[in-house]
Amino acid sequence: MEAAIEVADLRKTYRGRRTGEVRAVDGVSFRVERGEFFGILGPNGAGKTTTLEIVEGLRRPDSGDVRLLGRSPWPHSPELTRRLGVQLQASAFFEFLTVAEQIGTFAELYGATKARAAEMLDLVGLSEHVHMRCEKLSGGQQQRLSIACALVGDPELVFLDEPTAALDPQARRNLWDLMRAINDEGRTVVLTTHYMEEAEALCDRVAIMDAGRIKAVDSPAEFVRKLDAPTRVTVAAGQLDDARIAELAIDGTAAAADGAVVFETRDPRKLLTALASDGALEGLAVRTANLEDVFLHVTGREWRG
Ligand SMILES: Nc1ncnc2c1ncn2[C@@H]1O[C@H](COP(=O)(O)OP(=O)(O)OP(=O)(O)O)[C@@H](O)[C@H]1O
């Protein structure tokens, strides 16, 4: 079976009188398999939205190729469009329409039934707000409505562009559950995000994007494993004398700072067992490497998403 998405060497430069030339997408290639949950992770301005818009067929690249479900998105074909779900930014809503009218418009576009529209509102937890005007919805509710609109046509391939941006942590986690459910139904999901923990929690594979380029693609777990970084174990100072600290640091390093002792070790189990038997677990914090460390490693820059 062909891939859900194949992208080869996309390039797009914006030219503005004030901004000059901006190489928003600078030779991007990737492949997404059917059923995959694929993430594009990068800081603001990395080129994620431009890439997504090109892949969706909403924007023409200067050069490069896109295949969606084995076909080119240009020229537009209703047959292909029906198989795609594109979540538009909530700001694209007609604010004077009610929730029911908004999703009804999408349902008509996709030839979906009223029952399907109601089912999608139920899925995203908006059934009780069908008569509310879109402008009265909270940020999280608007994001959920935009996802419901993207799903109403029963798409095989769903594009979500920073769906949890500007949401509070609880609303963000609720949306994570919804996104997981969409993928569990067998749909391919492409998500852009600048939240590390979101990419880590949801994606089968993540493309790390910076300055218009994809720097690396892998699963979050593999990224971290290949980094082969030590685990950092911190305990409050004053529980261990210097000789014992030196003894425990035998497989790694130890440093005292700000009332804490920080160990870096590749054998955290052994260290934690020793700390437990010393009764020195006050202020314990264990930090393993995460995608933030990976970002630093692959781009050479600190993460400032
Ligand atoms: N229509 C446009 N005209 C001119 N420049 C643009 C346009 N859209 C984006 N850019 C510029 O292209 C670069 C990439 O923007 P893009 O929106 O694709 O990045 P992004 O990773 O999605 O960032 P964000 O998270 O801020 O949306 C940025 O420098 C941006 O200022």
Automatic annotation (TrEMBL):
It comes from the Bacteria. Residues 5-236 form the ABC transporter domain. GO terms for molecular function: ATP binding. InterPro entries: AAA+_ATPase, ABC_transporter-like_ATP-bd, ABC_transporter-like_CS, ABC_transporter_ATP-binding, P-loop_NTPase. It holds the Pfam family ABC_tran. It is found in: Cell membrane. Keywords: Antibiotic resistance, ATP-binding, Nucleotide-binding, Transport. It is a peripheral membrane protein. Belongs to the ABC transporter superfamily. This is ABC transporter ATP-binding protein.
